[in-house]
């Protein structure tokens, strides 16, 4: 990437920050909410690294007003957050919980009053447990239930929402939840994982249709994918082929159906030892492929892959998060990920900002009419609170100095600026995350926030990265 001193962004560029309901909300047993698969998963000893759960999390259920004030101080124009499905439809009878609807109405109205546009994710992994009891995402009917849920929510919330995002990272739901089982619901069955891929695609299409049926064609709709940026470990033909297979299973299973209305035939061939794809029924592609207003892209790191001999198990990658090289493949089609190199974040992930630039340019070239938005980007590090009398008044004398997070942010924003200058159609960037929060199977052991949370007192403490992001947002440049 070009190294220069000043980077600017387009005049209408959207700056935001992001969270997810189960990670920050808490209030798990309040307001009519019932258990999600993550509540159930957390209750099983050994599933969560620090034996924690999401019962309280960051207590945003009660403190959302305080957090909106933080966003106002940051100066962001948008907030990406998710709705908890079990708070809206808490029982198997499908009836809407008005307490849940009213809660989100208040959040949306307060965001609007603060001049912050709500970008609402409709599904960020917290499936109601009663639906898992009916087979979860491996059951085709769950996609239909999702469509009903979205229809009810769109009707209830109406034009309070700026952008409706159908799904967050279906890759994780399918491969971590149903493939290797390191995420809820904790199932290790790659046949179910591939069924889940398809049913999530179907749910996405049904969700888009439901929003537009309620709100009209002018409703802004998106989906967020954590597209894997894979690099071949060498130029050898077998390693290049391994990269191709990893890309097919990680990325093309979503991009193809959602944006092109098809599954690449190489996907069917590569997974022939696992499933026959009979769950892809006639007419499904017409439902799945829906016009989008924006494509959300989550990016953290790259992975290097090579060809390998068949392995008896498909193992997770660093920190329990499998890499694309460990996606489901028949024995003769296995690929292997290499250990990351360089300075790794606290998640054990590498830092390669060029991967973000390359991904955005490739997507814009392939889908030239589709705006892109970086909906998550950030890094976890070990943080310490300092007492600093020189800190700005609103920090109450406490501050977290996090130079590594600041450096990660800077190099990735440089990559983003380079991509835009090179022609990538990117319209926004959301820092992950507004707050330290529950990092899924790793509990509260990893901190991604640009604002620290003291989980004992729920005090919010500014970090240098938050102050730095504030200056970038205000200047629309750095």
Automatic annotation (TrEMBL):
Residues 311-331 are annotated as: Disordered. This is Beta-glucosidase. One of its GO terms (biological process) is cellulose catabolic process. Keywords: Carbohydrate metabolism, Cellulose degradation, Glycosidase, Hydrolase, Polysaccharide degradation. GO terms for cellular component: cytosol. The active site is at 169 (proton donor), 376 (nucleophile). It comes from Bombiscardovia coagulans. Belongs to the glycosyl hydrolase 1 family.
